[in-house]
Amino acid sequence: METSAIVMMIVGIVVIWGGLAASITHAVKKARENKA
Fold it and tell me: Cα separation of 1 and 24, whole Å?
């Protein structure tokens, strides 16, 4: 594998997991606001 391919793979994983984490935290914040 080329270095650029590995870097692209890592960047893709970080973006996907970062988006997932952001959506989870956003959902948790909304749930807390609704309960309050």
Answer: 33
Single pTM value for the model: 0.57
Full 3-state SS string of 11-32: HHHHHHHHHHHHHHHHHHHHHH
Question: HSE-up of 23 (CA within 13 Å, CB side)?
Answer: 6
1-36, pLDDT tens digit by residue? 799 999 999 999 999 999 999 999 999 999 998 887
Residue linked to tokens 């997932």: 20
Start-to-end CA span in the chain (Å):
52
Q: Look at the alpha carbons of 36, 31, 28, 33 in this order and tell me if their dihedral is positive or negative.
A: negative
